[in-house]
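>> received
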Amino acid sequence: FDEKVSSLDLSAPLSILPDLSVEETIGIMNNEGYDQLPVIDATGKIEGVATLVSLKAKVLKGNVSRDDPVLKATYNTFKKVTLDTTLEKLNRILDKEHFAMVVHSQRLCK
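>> returned
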């Protein structure tokens, strides 16, 4: 557990902008094979995380429409970790949280 997150084989995630529609986001997730995507603004600030299950559930319940910006349907409470975070610390975080955001370089889909 002394190993760091950097020892994991992680690729840079595909990120999306907050004004992308819920429908466009679901399409990108389906086409790219992701079930969650970080939502970042044009300056690179993390606004939240969109998850496929949550987006679909919120549309079905009528909490958001397919045309709404994805920002309206994102999780904005999550833990951030860096590549220098130990796997032991990440393990403790994941005992309490559903996911953690590894902060490093990202691909942006506009």
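>> The longest strand covers residues 46-51.
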